[in-house]
């Protein structure tokens, strides 16, 4: 895919910061479960589509048969859901850590930190990206 331009990196960083302000760790259990399940379904479905119908996503390769594509999609979906579940727990723990340290606006701190890290990592990717 390649790295983003500096302007694209800034937009992604700002979006990351805005999303990081949302206190998903404090959301009701059903909302958290829906976010985790939705993440898994979207990731698994996207992988299945990319393998079984590669032309839909612009790949020029032979389609993978439905069963193997579904199995791979299920594994990717489960991994994405698991990663999201861990992320929700880490979000809650990070916020509580900041609150215990007396930070007045922990969500704002997390948003700024998320935006800054996103931009830095994208800038590093741009710097070290090699032409394929």
Features:
132 residues; mainly alpha
Span of the ends, CA to CA: 10 Å
Q: What does the main sheet amount to? A: none
Strand content: under 5%
Rg (C-alpha, Å)? 18 Å
Which structural class should the secondary elements be placed in?
A: mainly alpha
Tell me the helix content: over 70%
Instruction: Please give the number of β-strands.
Output: 0
Element-level helix/strand string: HHHH
Low-confidence stretches: none
Tell me the number of helical segments per DSSP (H or I, 4 or more residues long): 4
Give the integer mean of the pLDDT values.
91
- Described by the principal axes of the CA atoms, the overall outline is flat
Transmembrane segments: 6-24, 31-51, 71-90
Keywords: Membrane, Transmembrane, Transmembrane helix
How is this structure best described in words?
The structure is a single chain. The protein is mostly helical and 132 residues long. The protein contains 4 helices and no strands. It has helices spanning 6-21, 29-52, 66-100, 106-128. The protein starts with 5 loop residues before the first helix and ends with a helix. The model has no long low-confidence stretch (mean pLDDT 91). The chain crosses the membrane at residues 6-24, 31-51, 71-90. Keywords: Membrane, Transmembrane, Transmembrane helix.
């Amino acid at each position: 895919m390649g790295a983003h331009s500096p302007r694209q990196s800034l937009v992604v960083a700002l979006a990351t910061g805005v999303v990081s302000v949302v206190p998903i760790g404090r959301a009701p259990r059903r909302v958290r479960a829906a976010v985790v399940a939705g993440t898994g379904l979207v990731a698994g479905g996207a992988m299945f589509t990319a393998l079984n119908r590669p032309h839909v996503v612009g790949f020029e390769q032979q389609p993978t048969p439905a069963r193997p594509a579904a199995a791979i999609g299920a594994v990717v979906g489960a991994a994405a859901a698991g990663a999201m579940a861990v992320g929700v727990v880490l979000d809650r723990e990070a916020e509580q850590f900041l609150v215990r340290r007396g930070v007045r606006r922990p969500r704002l701190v997390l948003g700024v930190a998320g935006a800054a890290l996103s931009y830095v990592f994208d800038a590093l990717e741009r710097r070290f990206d090699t032409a394929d």
